[in-house]
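Thread: Newbie trying to understand structure tokens

Hi all, I'm a second-year student working on a class project, and my supervisor (Dr. K.) asked me to get a predicted structure for one chain before our next meeting. I've only ever worked with sequences, so writing a 3D structure as a token string is new to me. If someone could post the tokens and maybe explain what I'm looking at, I'd be very grateful. Here's the chain:
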Amino acid sequence: MRYRLADDAKPQITLLLVATLVTIALWFVPYADYLLYPIRLFVTFIHEGSHALTGLLTGGSVHSLTIGADGSGAVYSVPSGWFGAILTSSAGYLGTTAFGVMLLFLIRRAVAAKRVLLASAGFVGLMTLFFGVLSPIFNIFSLQVGFSNLLFTIVAGAILTGGLFALGKYASIKTANFAVAFLAVQCLLNSLQDLTTLFFINAPFAGSEIGNDAVNMAQATGIPAFGWVIIWIGISMLMISIGLRFYAVSRKGKQNDLPFED
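---
Reply by user tm_fold:
Sure, no problem. This is what the structure looks like when written as tokens:
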């Protein structure tokens, strides 16, 4: 099967490359972490929200979702059976990658960037409301997190929801397009970066006793945590490869409808 770069993909390719270069450049800028801090919290919301949704959809119960001030996060849930536990533990990293790939898909399908931003605001808002507020209230006697963690989650969720809503409502088309591309890049790169960190944490002879999703998988399946990290990296790379191919190429022929035209 022969493929080539689609003519109508060239504007989006440029947009994606610029967003990627900006992201990489910020890695080398002093104190740029402060600029990217809201994005880091957004990616954590996607990661933890994927855990929570998967746990709920597989028949489990979610007691709380919290985001830490350091960008970490945690979901406390009771899975429904062995298979539900596996899916829930795998959902964080793979869900973040899938979200980034989905943003690429929506850009390529010429879905209005403002709608994507409003939908993202809705997602963060719902995760905050249901799993950061209501679930802890209903499970108050079995909570394993402190009030300060819940308070920070609510405040961070509200600010992110408001910021994404403002972008979707008031930003120019070009700004909204770049924001969606930037969020997609951040989700994909942060997911791979976090998996790389997890790789070294769970590497043989590392001697780490840090609890994480891979350790949960090891306890549920007997397969070493290091092995699960490799599996997740492989699946993530496959998803990204498929997403980029869909984003950038088409079968022989030309599409005449250029997306994102003012």
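A couple of things are worth pointing out once you decode it. The chain has a mean pLDDT of 84. DSSP finds eight helices and four strands in the chain. Feel free to ask follow-ups in this thread.
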